[in-house]
Amino acid sequence: MQESKDGQGHEAPPVNRPGRVITASLIGTSIEFYDFYVYATAAVLIFPHLFFPAGDDTAATLQSFATFAIAFIARPVGSALFGHFGDRIGRKATLVASLLTMGISTVVIGLLPTYDQISVIAPLLLALCRFGQGLGLGGEWGGAALLATENAPRDKRALFGTFPQLGAPIGFFLANGVFLILSGVLSEDAFLAWGWRVPFLLSAVLIIVGLWVRLTLHESPAFTRIVASGERAKTPVLEVFRTSTRSIVLGTLIMVATYVLFYLMTVFSMSYGTSPDGLGYAYTEFLVLLLIGVVFFGALTPVAGLIADRYGRRPTLIAVTVAIMVFGLAMGPMLGSGSTPAVLACLVIGLSLMGLTFGPMGALLPELFPTNVRYSGASIAYNLGGLLGASLAPYAATWLAAEVGLWAVGGYLIGAAALTLVALLMARETKGSSLDEVPAASGS
Known about the structure:
444 residues, mainly alpha, globular, cell inner membrane, transport, transmembrane, MFS_trans_sf
């Protein structure tokens, strides 16, 4: 069998089949987001009772949310660390390392002793493991997005870029589905004693599956060509800030509304919906409503990719961001009504908008950066957006709802969306752009 050659007569790099690319990007991010959201759910339901001193329930919840936020501080660190290696040694090996970092941190959480057993050391260890989760996810998303987009046909990049994005609703559904099943089959005492550990320990099985899938991949063609041409950046993180500062700033701000919307619709709504001072739903009852909303999130994510491939990333996201601002006006009255149909409608609409705004990001952020610093640039922008938009969202929304009212939580969302809208209006359209571009002044 004759080997294929490139335009210069060299042996062409092996190409990943589309099905393998889709499977690897989807499974990998699903596992990573499963790990991340298992913690988010436990931060609402479990950790305030087991890892912090007994007493004021609101104070314990806020302390738990503080450990939740630690991951968003770690994620930019992870994006810089894994981005360096992703741009220097390749996407494949770095994705394997990020998956292991996330998975080991998650499994260890499932083995931690509680506050009653080791006092203040328990929340400190919990915070350390949460930092590890953030570190891993900081390197995961950029690599998975590049895996999808650098292997995609140019006219289908936004669609291919939605497959790593689908990991978020799938991971959320799996994480909370496991909690729902366990809380249904175990008594409350058994669930608090040991049942909550099961979702974290299950991550070990998922990691094995994810590693097997990723180790079968070839390196992306775009990165292979960069290696062959000798145009890899010596210090990708420094290089991306030197050559693409505007793209980092705009990419970060473009992500802010997405993050605020998601964590208001999930972590905050779960906390408020199940709190005696909020809506007072039983955990299982509210979780069912939330999982229905997440189905719409997942269904509309690829739809957004198709729209962005046809009409462009910028027009699609501008329209959705305006819709998010309008939703911010209605969110407080709908969620605060206490009416199950209104609460469900709030979750469905909010998470539908989440799918529409999140879907195109898998293509847009990588397209903002040249190949030799793309892993670093896309990862840094994505995770700085998380630091600004998500790290404080559950904490701030909980405080606003208690001290001001739910209308202020909607105003918080509107403010975040306005920031994103300004960034989108300043950004360039990236549909149809080449993914083989390298700045003329880059290091080798």
